[in-house]
Structure prediction request, 718 residues.
Amino acid sequence: MHLPKLNIPKKYIRAGAWVLGVFLLLLTITGIIAYNKREALLKKMMAKAISKADKDYGLNVKIAEYGFNGLSTVHMKNISVVPKDRDTLSTITDMTIGVKLFPLIFGDVKLSKIDLHTGKLNIVFRDTISNLDFFLKRKKKDDTEKKTKADLSNLAHDLLNQVLYKIPDNMTIKDFLLNVNDNDTAKLTFLTTRATIDDGELNSTILVNDRESTWHINGIVKPGKKQMDIMLFADNKKVELPYLERKLRAKFSFDTVRTEMKNADYSGNDFKISGSWSIKNLLINHPKIASNDIVIADAKIDADMLIGKNYIALDSTSTVFLKKAAIHPYLKYTLSPNKIYEVKLHAPEQDAQEVLSAFPQGLFESLDGMQVKGKIRYDLNFYLDSALPDSVRFTSALTPTNFKILKWGKTDLQKINKDFIYTPYERGKPMRDILIGPANPNYVSLSEVSSNFKNAILTSEDPSFFSHKGFVQESIRKSFAVNFKAKKFVRGGSTISMQLVKNVFLSRQKTLSRKAEEILIVWLIENNNLVSKNRMLEVYFNIIEMGQNIYGIGEATRYYFGKRPSDLNIGEGIFLANIVPRPKIALYKFKDDGGLKDYLYPYFKFIGKIMAGRGLTPVDSSGYGFYNVRLREGLRKYILPDSTSIDTNELDSDDPLPAIETQDASKNLFDRLFGRHKKDTTNVQPAKADTTKSKRELRQERREQRKKEKEQEKSAPF
Prediction:
């Protein structure tokens, strides 16, 4: 195929050549003028930047010398940055910065080179202030300026680009010190003796805490392609930070951590960042997490992060690997118009032993060494719209296929099918050994327990005990809504199965790992029919704490009423069910004549009405036995007079306190879940400012009360 020959008149060719020549001449002249004026332009730009730092952030920036060194390279000496009324933030002795010319034409500042010799970044915290406070300052805007909500996807795109633009193609850093001083008690230093980027290859040597250890951050960085692959490790030891242990009582160390960004670009209207993060031999130890070291040998996540106009999400295409086990997470946080929280987890059907072996070492101590066969699958779905918390959605299902336990771990989960020794603990100390079996005179078989107590405690604690498989999803779902609306932890979702496992199989240390272990053991027992429901309830009734050093329904009925468990009336059954959540303060519920305090009457009507509606007790308009509950005569002398005023702020943490029908608002989620002593003022008269009792008298009164409690234990008829 032949293209037709173009016949362009010569006059047009000559005209085009003249235009191009003039354009090149103007461009050359402009370049020469700009080159000759560049020092003046640089001086003007520097002055503007220094003025802006002072005006917007209160930063005193000084540069002793600066000037061009070559066509596009600026050389500076003796730089200092000092926030107003704060410690010096940074000093740099010598620094050279080069920029790329072509992107500069379009307004993008991309670094081509950084050379830095001898510098220091000094971060200081003193009580509630630091020399980083300037970050919190905001430039005042005109009140008439129209406020618009940022598109998060565009914001993420621009922010990432700004970060990538500041990564140079070539870099040399020598002797740069990062110093962190936290109230002069916790100090941390990182001295970068040398860090280089040479054609995208990153290498560095960092001395931590004056040669306490040597770290390296090495890898490949390609900011132009939005790619990087970086690894952090230490010479001949783990990467660890004693600073965290001193500051947070947390041990944290690992062999290597690797971060990879594979791509970052728009996917439709969303900005998508794809990459991975992995870690080897991660060790964590914190008293709120576990009482021992938790070790994660090999963990990795292949992640796809999506940033939309009003949300941030970890997409379901992401995969978390723990050894050979895998799970697909989906996390989404929507900011507007309402805050919405979404969590989905999907673990496809996989070998059960590989899943069990993937659990971090030290997380489930009682299951160490357990062998299983078969397959399991897990799915979780959680959705909470902050504007409609009552409509929260929650489902969780661990589905077995041909699952079977071949060998127990450290703990035999079927030990409660026969007689065993139960040891209750108080504040980490064993109280006494209790034989759970007929040889114990206080042991009560299920058939010997009054239906009044059995029905009352099932109604108040776990109405669907005989039909559920260890968990009540509706109860857990409602607890999410209640806790979210209350802005604190006020309701849990524990079943009798969970309470039994917590007391019989696990330590009383209140940690995240113990809670996770509790859930897993409950599933193993309930879904593999290791223990019958009747036997679980029977054991529960015999170990349940029901007073100061009172355990089991047999001890409780004799202690409070001088009765056998089979003889309890409806009122006594409801009362004993009522004290289960807060057993140590049971005696505070009685008046000095042995009757119950009036505030309990609505509770009796509430529980009794539910029981009557289910056909568990006759309808009773007089309070379902409230007025028939009478403390045995021998204990009444130990009850404080009804007129006694108690200042709960003066009570010691070891004192038994009055019952609480609502939770303490001062406690955070960790404390509500995993323990802190519960103080309360419900059911006692608060101390008044003009009380006639001195603090010394109140303390003496408490000592006498504790003495009475010990006498009660000795005199109990069992």
